[in-house]
């Protein structure tokens, strides 16, 4: 009987621990930068695309950055200024940050001037539009909650960064032509890297 009670207690503890934080997943074009006062560190070798937060309301800072091919061997980087949105995380729900990707660089530039993103619970067909807000400091108690862990993707050399195509590409086969290739992505991340990161990368690939 004691073993049964002990086993039940352990299972309840594991369930409570697993439900402490929910996950918000960001697509590669939307880079999470900050949760409240807490910075999310991105690097040349790895990027954070999953943010774990306890249930509650948070202010998230992110940036839109995308890459479009302009001919056979040319491409254009389109970026927005960093912007804040307010999100509410409910217990037991994981989320995706979603947006309508522009079909070309001109439309992407328009989007970058006024980004529109939504939060979609996994398994749901409904996405909730997120309003862009001005950052405001939270009370001390809320700041303590905002220190939930951030899940980082595994660090990989830039040459191994995969380009994942969406299940449905707007415009069919024509839309696929606008997707970045590996060489363009490598050049894009090289441009984003600091001098220290570039030296570290060159040293890594030369070994």
Give the strand content. Answer: 25-35%
Radius of gyration: 20 Å
Helix percentage range: 25-40%
Number of helices: 6
H/E order of the elements? HEEEEEEEEHEEEHEHHH
Shape: globular
Number of domains: 1
Largest sheet: 6 strands, mixed
**Counted beta strands:** 12
Q: Termini separation (Å)?
A: 60 Å
Looking across the biggest beta sheet, what order are the strands in?
A: 10-9-8-1-4-12
Average pLDDT rating: 74
Spans of 5+ residues with little confidence (pLDDT < 50)? 2-7, 13-19, 140-179
* Helix/strand class: alpha+beta
Labels describing this entry:
single chain; six-stranded mixed β-sheet; six-stranded antiparallel β-sheet; disordered N terminus
Could you characterize what this model shows?
The chain is of the alpha+beta class and 207 residues long. It has one domain. Helix content is 29%, strand content 29%. The strands form two sheets. A six-stranded mixed β-sheet has the order 10-9-8-1-4-12, with no helix packed on it. Strand 9 and strand 10 (127-130) form a beta hairpin. The protein is globular, with a radius of gyration of 20 Å. It starts with a helix and ends with a helix.
Would you summarize the structure shown here?
Helix content is 29%, strand content 29%.
Helices and strands in order:
Layout (H helix, E strand, L loop, with lengths): L1 H17 L3 E4 L4 E6 L2 E2 L10 E4 L2 E14 L5 E5 L3 E7 L5 E4 L6 H9 L3 E5 L5 E4 L1 E2 L6 H6 L4 E2 L21 H4 L5 H11 L2 H12 L1
Parallel strand pairs: 1-8
Antiparallel strand pairs: 1-4, 2-3, 2-5, 4-12, 5-6, 5-7, 7-11, 8-9, 9-10
